[in-house]
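Journal club side-thread
Mid-discussion, someone asked how the predicted structure for our own chain would compare to the paper's figures. Pasting it here so we can look after the session.
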Amino acid sequence: MNTFLIGTSMPRNCRIEAQAEQGVTLYRLAIADAAAPQSDEARNKDFDTDRSSVLASFCLDLPQEKATSMVAVYQHKSWWVRPAFAAAWKDIPERTQLLIWKEEDAFCVLLAVCDGGIRTDFSGAEAGIRVEISTNGCPSDRNTHICAGAARGRDPYQCIHALAAAAAGGQGRSHILRENKVFPEMFRSLGWCTWDAFYHKVNEQDIFKKLKELQDKKIPVRWMLIDDGWSDADYEIRKLNDITADRVKFPEGLRHTVDVAKKQYGLEQVGVWHALMGYWTGFNPDTPVFRRWEKALIKRGGQDYVLMPEEEAVFSFYDSWHTWLADECGIDFVKVDGQGSGSLYYKEIAGYGTSAGGYLRALERSAGVHFQGNLINCMGMAPENMWLREHSAISRSSDDFVPQTPHGFREHALQNSFNSLLQGQFFWGDWDMFWSRHVESRQNSVLRAVSGGPVYLSDQLDQTDGKYIFPLLGWDQKLILCDEIGVPTMDCLLKDPLHSRDLFKIFNRYGNGYVVAVFNLNADDEVCAGVLSTGDIPGLAGEEWLVYRHFEKRCDCLRDGGTVVLELEANDAELLLVLPKKDGGQLLGDPAKYVSSYAVLEEQADARGIRARVSPAESVAFVPAQPVREALVDGQPVVCRELDGCWEIPCGCKQAEIEIRY
């Protein structure tokens, strides 16, 4: 990638060095005197914005003719990032963290890095890309930092990963990469959250009513999150009164709620929500929690009392709260919201590594001690959140699920899939809760099938419908999870699906095949068409594949260099299972499940037929290599049904031995 430093506006205290490392280019910031204070004109003291104080800036000189379409994943709120599609360098939004474009037959990738006390942001310039390196209004914590990286290659996903790995390794922190973490076992089961069901009116009796409904409908929810509204807080001024539960909403205490949920309704884990600052704007003066921690509090933003930005002080608070939650209440995990506050509240008094980094390290330490590390990070997609967490595995990857907003799914699908290109380097994404009975429940269900992360509902009372829940679950009532994280296919990376008539595709890997979610996100509610080609996903080229459509119950052959034609009505969705084609024929799996191949436990195929063992299923779909002469299930003849490009054999909802004879 030909890049040149031009139009520099850096203080004489700084210089930029570009170095080739591990097949990518890393940009390093060298500071002559890290302790030197920043000039007043570079600082941003506004507590209402997380725009940082600029330490250094430079431009990458890039000819416009080399890129006519690009996607930028940028921080559009204090808490969240989202994609933006641009046709010129000048249109790249401020606070971009990941930028992708194509030059001829290769993708180019720029990655912004947060390293200790500095963060980097890209934005558009007339002649290329502006790079700003910022602190939190404080001197830097050391003299050298990795600030950005650049890569070029045919596989954009490998470019992104190589950049993240090189930057993390260059910081001596390769452990922050998702590949070096373990997916929490509890999130292999289905969950339910109180938020969209009750919002701040959550209470014990309504929780029990909902759990009974789920039990009666045989929805195998195994964990529950009691979201915002349970705690003793002043909800008007958004401040914490005490670490205990609201006594009106939970008259017998939180322990009673947890015990009944587990013993009577079969839950295995119960978690609670809290904000990074205790509650949204900290501690309420002259309350039990304020009096206990007063010596560790400071006043910020004019009227908010928050903990001083010292890791041990923050850990002491979390440790005390989490001890009570775990030991006295039986709580198993926490979701912690508002994580962008970790830097906002401490402008000019603590750098990113101390403020955001210190809070997150303290939080992870306490969650490790009390909840075995079971932690959902939320509202924390600023770079100082993504890069400075150490060990946690799960983080929300989008704005909230918004069931009352017409066509809210479109933005939700875009954010989760594109954001996962970046955040997925460090975490499995929490693609947020959804309603199983809703005008967009089909799309939301299909989206979760390809996410690779936790899946949970937030249905209101009497509103749970299993139609789009059960396809996500295996016979053991566990989620059928893909192996990686869901991201857009290569042909969808640089196109805005809301303003085109192209279908939008998200893929993930499962075993030796792929799962592809297909959506019509067109903002004008038009019918959209598209194709799946062997060039859409790295690994498809050079092979022959079977493509099974879940809702159509149809199977097509995808040959190398060929395509499978797709079409969807407005706001519709389809789920494709893509499996390598075998010479002797093969099973597709349980057609009632999105990832149907999960049901195939053992399989052999040759010129005589197919022999397999399958998990409990009402039926199994298969593609024969020759005309079927006879089909047996556990040695007994059965009648098969011909579908579109495949066949279906009844299995009697039990684990079975299947033999298909040619």
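Post-session note: Residues 1-8 have pLDDT under 50 and may be disordered.
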